[in-house]
Amino acid sequence: MTDPTESHGNLFPIFLLSLIQFFLVPITIFRVGGWLLGDGDKAARPAAAAPAVAPADASSEWGKAAAAHAARNKPTTSKRIKALFRGFNLYVSVAWAMSAALAVYIAYSAPPEHKVFDPYEILQLTPGADASAIKKAYRTLSLRYHPDKNPDPEAHEFFTGSITPAYKALTDENSRVNYEKYGHPDGKQPVKLGVALPAWMFGQDGTGPYVLMFLVAFGILLPMFFAVCAIQRMNKYGGDAGKVLRQTFQHFMMELRPNLALTKVPKMLSVAMEFINIPFKRDQEEGFRKLAVSTKSEYDSKDQKFMKRHPAILKAHMLMLAQACRKTNDVDASLQADLKTVMGLFPRLAEEALKITLAPVNQLGYSFMRPGLSILEFTQCVTQAVAPSARKPSDKPGQVADGLASLLTLPHVDERTAVNLTRKKVKSLADLLATPGPDARASALAAAGLSARQAADVEAHLRFVPSVKFLTATVETEGEADVVELDAVTCRVTLKMTRGANARAAEKDEDGKDESAAATASAWGRDEACGLIVRSRDDLPPLPFCTRCEREEGWWLAVTDPAANFILSCRRLTADVVAEAQQSPKGKQLELKFNVPTAGVYSLQVKLLSDYWIGVDASWGAKVKVLKRTNEVMEKRMAAAAAAVDEEKSAKAKARKARLAAAAGEGEGVGESGEIASESANAAGSASDSDDLSDLDSDDDSDDGLGRHGDDDYPSEETGTEESSDEEEDDAFFANGEKKPPAAAAKLPEAKPAAAVAAKSPEAKPAAAAAAPKSAEKPKPAESGGSQAQD
């Protein structure tokens, strides 16, 4: 007979299954719920389904790439099955498989049911057998299972553990009592508890040394190994995500220049240690030579120092240029794997390089402007597959003429088509968005050489293109009329964004009408007015030429000084902020704080920059005059602050007098009670007058420069005093009446009810008027008013 509580291994599978399910069920609910909510959220947004749509015309280079992209992203049954066994889903699937195996094992390996101790069943007797039958049965079983008769260990165990206790329970009186009371001849048995662990873990059957080795290996050495690996990784990698080699940061710093141009950005990014670690094989030499010839117009081949760089650096440089120039199909088959690796690392390395360029270079926290703008422009080129040479520098400092380059981001538009569009007075993407009506845009595109189906693809693409403008922008010092050098200045901008040509037209219509703000708000609130909302890369249009790296839309707000090549302050906008700037009727108000430089007149520019789109960046010019920090300017500031404080104090004093007068009017009554009330009101009024006189006199004595003029009663954190409340003033008003001479004070309790009743009757007003001159002839100073006058 077996007892499941004595077996350690019976409960171990149940314990292991419970432990796995404790973590697996919440994770599965979270994952499945996220998929369901994500699908439902995407279904509510019309932009999410657009990237999966195949192009209307697949004859052009862009159409072929878009068709191939749509075919790759088309959901199929095999792709759904593969998605279940990829990444984190693989671990979830394995955990569920283990749970199923444990459940089957538990179901088919259940321990035998524990039988209750029954002496009659053990001795093979019927209940109620007499003593002779019991002895006969015991003798018979003894001949079969006694150790002297049967050397089998199981027989010995059955005889000592079952037959003997059963015979004892039926023949011995005490044993019979214990059996009837506790169910066992030996009396009450201790509770047996089992451990949900296998028996070998307790060193049974000679497994002690192995258990010790297991505990040392997995309890001490394995955690130490993971800790050492984590420390080595921390020392080897850096960045916010911890996925960029620290040597890469050093190489970027060596390549950083204050006037880093757009064409020099791939030269800086190619020195990343991740690219250097990609081996340059001999069979790649011919393919690399062809690639260098095809991208020759994008780099200086006469720079011998550049051409003598490490082959892995040159290979990464050419592969990034091939992506930007739409020449990935011309890359040799031996370099296709490296192209995928380079473009997979590009977003991460470009982001870290941008953070390095935005690091402060002076005590005011400024960073160089040109390197940051160049990196953002190059990420635009890689994302939209536009050659850097197509972006011509502008005459204005810090700006790039992106008219032709922005047109190249449109479907089916090549250089010839873009030039034809410029001849039709569509010189940029913004001009095409501003063209009223789809028919007018289709006509312009047809005149440039596009077919009707290609024009339909362009119209569908325009639904995603953003249009940004600054509604308002101010640069000022908080609470001051002028800006003085080294001031902490706040730049406030109101940003408004729309998407699509229809939203741009709606914006122009609203600007042209002179209607109320409510009408404008209602127009902006509709999806067709503000355009499609983009919250992730799934909501963006397809990038047929940028299929090897995952790109998301990013926006940066910066205050720049183009003349000095400085970024004074910048911040990255989150997707929620961008969505609010698009959905809100009045736009989104943002703030940037920075310290102004030395005295002078500065032409600052507030820029909104994108690392995804070309030709959509917005700029707002602002001239800021910074005064020199002189004693005269600071005294003027202090005088203005003092005047403001004095005005505030005067307003508070008038309000206090008005409250006291109102309280005195309500407390006037008939007889001495009315006289006491008027006297206390006059005393409080004289105290306020003396307080004002003391303030005027103290102007000549002391002035702390902040308008307090040595007034100890001025409520501030420095003096520790606070202005009295209405309840405190009422208590002081009645306290003055209690401090009158004994005769008046004795009559006060009797007069209070009369005054309260008389105050409600019309006859109380003449009596109060008659009592007022008497109190004015013989004023009695109150103690609270005297303390204020002394101040």
UniProtKB/TrEMBL annotation:
Subcellular location: Endoplasmic reticulum membrane
Listed name of the protein: DnaJ protein
GO biological process: post-translational protein targeting to endoplasmic reticulum membrane; SRP-dependent cotranslational protein targeting to membrane
Taxonomic source organism: Micromonas pusilla (strain CCMP1545) (Picoplanktonic green alga)
Biased composition (Low complexity): 679-688, 742-774
SUPFAM superfamilies associated with the record: Chaperone J-domain, E set domains, Sec63 N-terminal domain-like
Species classification: Eukaryota, Viridiplantae, Chlorophyta, Mamiellophyceae, Mamiellales
Molecular-function annotations in GO: protein transmembrane transporter activity; RNA binding
Region annotation Disordered: where it falls in the sequence: 679-791
Acidic residues composition-biased segments: 689-704, 713-732
GO cellular component, one term: Sec62/Sec63 complex
Superkingdom: Eukaryota
InterPro entries reported in the protein's UniProt record: C2_domain_sf (IPR035892), DnaJ_domain (IPR001623), Ig_E-set (IPR014756), J_dom_sf (IPR036869), Sec63-dom (IPR004179)
Key word Transmembrane present: yes
SMART domains attached to this UniProt entry: DnaJ, Sec63
Membrane topology: Multi-pass membrane protein
Keywords, comma-separated and alphabetical: Chaperone, Endoplasmic reticulum, Membrane, Protein transport, Transmembrane, Transmembrane helix, Transport
TM segment ranges: 12-37, 88-108, 210-231
Domain J: 118-183
Predominant location: endoplasmic reticulum
Alphabetical list of Pfam families matching this protein: DnaJ, Sec63
